[in-house]
Design brief:
It contains 7 helices and 13 strands. The radius of gyration is 21 Å and the shape is globular.
Amino acid sequence: MKIIALVKQVPDSTEIRVDKVTGTLIRAGVPSIINPDDLAGVEEALKIKETKDDVTVTVISMGPPQASGMLKELLARGVDEVVLITDRAFAGADTCATSSTLAAAIEKVGYDLIIAGRQAIDGDTAQVGPQTAERLDIPQVTYVDKIIDINDKTITVRKSLEESEEIIEAKLPCLLTTLSGMNTPRYMNCNDIVDSFNKEVKIMTFNDLGIDASKVGLAGSPTKVHHTFTKDVTAETETYELPAAEAAKLIAKTLKEKQIITK
């Protein structure tokens, strides 16, 4: 069984700057970490590997060349191989273009199960996993907080909702999105750290994927940021304590008034 874990390197900072021309995040000079939801997905993949024979775990990440350091860390945590999708052609991609690129790479690598984090802390859209599954035309289960059982044909998971849970069985191959609270990711160990220095970070570029240039990067991104700003915080903020129905009416009334004013 071949498990693909999708991982993103994200800024470890609240001081995020935005390029005013492209509307994309400025990542230069900002320390980075492994996205927490993605790291939980890697841990689940490694747990499956420990309990079943003939399981390999491949991590795929799309990002700048410096993301190879993060991937080396995942080798030291016990994954079998890592792939970095990197090329200037992919710069400025929104979730639509990112999922197109990831799906093309995944098809090249091959898979039985794909595990992705629910969402990235720098975007919070929760779109890349589901979009990738749609592009691959495979089943998907989102908001997974426990993998109950897996065999060669199906996987059974628990999906966490706001006020309930669902037990879902899906046919393989499929894609899961995982929650950061579902496990505690393991630390690197000495043997795997040493071994990681002898393993390569496989690089895939635009030319390796065989994908149309109009589907990647800014060119393949229908999402356009027209304006960004920091909202001023003042002491004049009004606070209301109302029943839900009255609060809803007040919100609707306020939004309607704002719409009239902005026109």
